[in-house]
Amino acid sequence: MKALAYEKAHALDAFALDLIEVDEPELGDRDLVVEIRAIGVNPGEAFIRSIRSAAPGGRVILGWEFAGVVTGTGPAATGFAVGDRVMGTGDITRDGCWAQRLAVDHRVVATIPDQLSFADAASLPIGSLTAWEAMFGDQPAPPPGVDTVLIVGGAGGVGSMATQLLKARTSAFVIGTASRPQSRQWCQAMGADLVIDHTADVTQQLSQAGIEQVDMVLSTAGTADNLAWIGACCAPSVTCRPSTWAARWTSARSCRSRSPCTPRWCSARSSPVRTPTDRTAYSRPSATTSRPASCARSSRPGFRASPCRA
Fold this sequence. Notes:
Layout lengths: L1 E4 L12 E4 L9 E9 L3 H9 L14 E8 L11 E4 L12 E5 L3 E3 L6 H5 L2 H11 L12 E5 L4 H13 L3 E5 L3 H10 L3 E3 L5 H7 L5 E6 L3 H11 E9 L2 H12 L54
Parallel strand pairs: 8-9, 8-11, 9-10, 11-12
Antiparallel strand pairs: 1-2, 3-4, 3-6, 4-5, 5-7
């Protein structure tokens, strides 16, 4: 089969990918073989491409967000059949989806709702799982008492999915941040109850809207630079959840040193399929880190993918 692959790590502008012939993927007991119809391209792949070289005589195939059709199933892969339309993430320790076919553990795959195209479905898995795990962890809802949620970067892929999940599954008042008119309109289209500008005085804008403090902050961008005002708008015992491991731990330490922000807990993603920058090692407090069994719950019919992730 054909695949896009490379041998030596390189910068994006070097564009050292080659279209080559490779062996068909090897089917494991828990695997599905998926014929790839669409892929999502993420910053993580650019990062891996810049640091990871193949073993001598080998090659690297990137790609960990895909949609396609099941063409084979392993003996322990349950819940799927040949012909199913599926989407999923993958495993950065195995070949990725920038190929005609992919062998992938069925536990990181979900069926595609009928109304979604392959292209739309391929844009969902990583952003959806990130949003779900950041806000819900392994629970069906956010922690008790979370009635007002601030999403920093509401127009991005994670922010878009977080807004829709909250509006579909909770009664929370959702505040998104966006700085451009197009981004503000997108946040509103996703269901945000209020949109404010994160480049201006956030606490002042919240106060003008009659909101003195929020119960949860999901920060998807610029977390380290925004910690001062994030801490200022947090209610006591607020849940602060940056969307990367390192940033979440940074926020947890910072918020605990401030008053009145003392997070109940700061979750960290445990999935092996996230970008390496999200898996920076650190000593962290005990946290709920289990992921949903599949991304089907966070890819409900009617959800829309951010154009940033197409």
